[in-house]
Predict the 3D structure of the following.
Amino acid sequence: MDYNLKLKKCSRCKEYLPLNKFSIDKKTKSGHQSYCKKCRKEMYHENRHINKIKEKEYRMKNPINIWAMHTRNNHQRRGIKINISVKKLTELGEMAVKNGCYYCGTKFDIRNSQGKAGEFTSNAMTVDLIDSNRKVMDEQNIRILCHSCNSGKGTLNEEEFLLKCKKIVERWSNDLK
């Protein structure tokens, strides 16, 4: 037996087990969780129904925070470098909910931003990279737009998009009167 092997006592089953039987937790003094992996798995299954209810309640109470986490994760998955915290993006999202879309002023429906098949509704809150070529999400390179404006803008930079909008208005202004 290896005498250098460190053991830890599980707070639930009271067994002494090797450290590799515990998940890492940097917040604890030992650097590992207090319950072994087996006990944590059992506890998860015992409380699955309660956890789902709590998670749903959290999502309902904190929709903008959930939006910020998903937005960051989705951009990161697409290869965008993330230089903005969830907290800061949540703050910007809260301001956007009050002010509406940066371009058209549409008010966001944060609790119902996706339709049945997961497609965005036109007033869904989305993050646009002002300069898509930079591939960086930071406070200086984002605007919070409705899905319609973000889709219309596509990969155009802000100046190109505004010129495109101006041309559309000029072309159709006589018909709108």
Remarks:
- Residues 112 and 118 are 11 Å apart (CA to CA).
- The chain has six helices and eight strands.
- The radius of gyration is 24 Å.
- Helices lie at 37-46, 48-61, 63-77, 86-99, 147-153, 158-176.
